[in-house]
Amino acid sequence: MRRIVLSLLVLGALGAAAGAEQLVVYTYRSFVKWGPAAAIEEAFEAAHPGVDLVWVAPAGGAEMLSRLIAELASGGSGADVFLGISAMDLPRALAHTVFRPYDPALIPNLAQVPEDLLFDRTGHVVPFDHGYVTFVASDALREDLVPRTFSDLLRPELKEKIILQDPRTSTTGLAFLLWTVARFGEDWTEFWRALLPNTLTITKGWSEAFAMFEAGEAPIVLSYSTDAAYAYITAGSLRYRVLTPDGEAARLVEGMGIVRTSEKADLAHAFLDLVLSREVQELIPTSQWMFPVNREATLPPDFARYAVLPEVPVFLDPAYAAEHLEAWLDQWQQVLGTP
Question: 0.90 exceeded by the pTM?
């Protein structure tokens, strides 16, 4: 039975299910609302009769992680697994000892995950999907103005034609900030200064930015490399074009781990293995609009045709980024003159 359990109802839900063993998974809201949660739950409960898989997903990923950290600090949590931790949040989770080490022998499908996607070298978190942040253009942009390089993004003809997101409040915005740091090194602020005249606005989140883009307020937006696939599969539209300046895009990887206080390690490992199975991974493209991490998963033909894998995925080491992030955000605010 699929359920979304609101935060204040967790204990009640646990009590109501007395007599049935439960595996409680904390995740973010959209994974349950639009993602493959229902299919995972059905498959898990079929494989483990008498076990009730309970999703707890009242908020976004970062907020859910904060909640889990607070619960552990105050004496314990009902969570057995956390699904949806980003690479950037990994140092924070490790600092608070949120997860216990996983046993690779109990996750056979982990062998199908490419080495370069294993972003946690401490052995606590395994990836379950990945995607890429980059620029997307609409068909309102003239062909001769389509940027193919970072230099093209600075052309004066693109004045106020680009919508960005705030790296302090947006996952995509933060990904772009880290991307520019990785590409330009100490000169990354100079690129931002040059880009500002072409920036129509910097929104707090991706949703606002994409809504403005869809409304035609600007022909270029910072978004995802799967947007063209999404538009074609859901609406039959080819109006979006994914851009990868100089072949690059910023890689996002999401992971999952077993909460250190869980007393259901075997079930938790079985859950991780199921999520990495080919069957579940093949649901990722058209529910999460991300790429699967299992190399044996087959992509839907239209997703494979229109979703873009960049030639050069850009990914900063999470520990290095976490160490410098506060200083980079201060510099970014100085460039923009924001408080």
Answer: no
